[in-house]
Prior knowledge:
BPS1-like protein; BPS1_pln
Amino acid sequence: MSRPHDGHPPAFPFGNPFRMIFPRGSWLSSKLVGLLNSFEESLAERLKKLKLKDQGDVLSLSWMRLAMELLSETHADVKDLITDLQFPVADWDEKWMDVYLDNSVKLLDICLAFSSELSRINQCHLLLQCVLHVLDSSKASPSREQLSRAHSSLGDWMKQISLRNPKLENCSTILHGLHDSLHLTKVKNSAKGKVLMRALYGVKVQTIFVCSILAAAFSGSPSPLVDLHVSDKFLWTEAFNDLLANVNGVIRNPISNGNPTQLKELEVVESSVERLYAMIGSDGNGLVEEEALWNSVSDLRKKLEKLSQGSDLLSKEVEGFFQIVLIGRDALLCNLRVDDSDSDIIIDSNVEQQVVR
């Protein structure tokens, strides 16, 4: 027998969907749930875009550029969400601000390390450009002196590219520290605060994931990689877990077999350099077949151009992400200074009134 009602059908015939999103005891208006759902659905779509079509793409510059681009979009979304929530900095818990400011400094350090490594790759690129120039300077077969100079430059390149950037070592420490502090902050008596903290948690998960892979690719080491485990209560959880399974096999399998991670475009350039280096010989006096030499030079030029273009595009994305983080940090500090100034004005006004009395 059906239960009596006032003539209106129940609002949620299959149960309250809000309860599936937030734990018992929480309540959010439909507007706040809509804002959060929109944010989390967008995050889920970005994570889906990062799934690999080719198993070698994860350590490629094109995948890394896309990952940084999507990460920037998510950080920009948080800024828009705060505006839509109409949640002024004055209402932020002091602990939230401390965590946000601390994390933003760490992200800026990571960006600087990535930029430093891309700059180092570009500087090494100049050595190979020198090799190509020397070998192309004569339409005939290169002289013994030219081959010797090219061989020396190739050797210098291999030595320089094998060096490890100390700034990348710090990335591993930073990322593991961010992971250790990764938790969904509990918020009391603030519906908007709950939405904000939940959104920031999603941003932090995506940030750690993307930056750890880039750091591993740049450093050639698995140490920056972290194990991320996410609750199934988020709208982006399924997309994230699928991505994690998709990417981890590509990165962790070579590591388990004793092979280091390496940037894809850099790896193919290195192979081309090693072949040309061996072909020329230590004193430039080896027997070099002209056609084989030009084929090797042409192959190196094509691969070097792809590496250069890819690193330039990734550098722009890293710089763009750096600016987003920096602008967000400056905006928070600016708002805090305004709040402090307003407080000082109120205090001065009260003192003045007391004096007049």
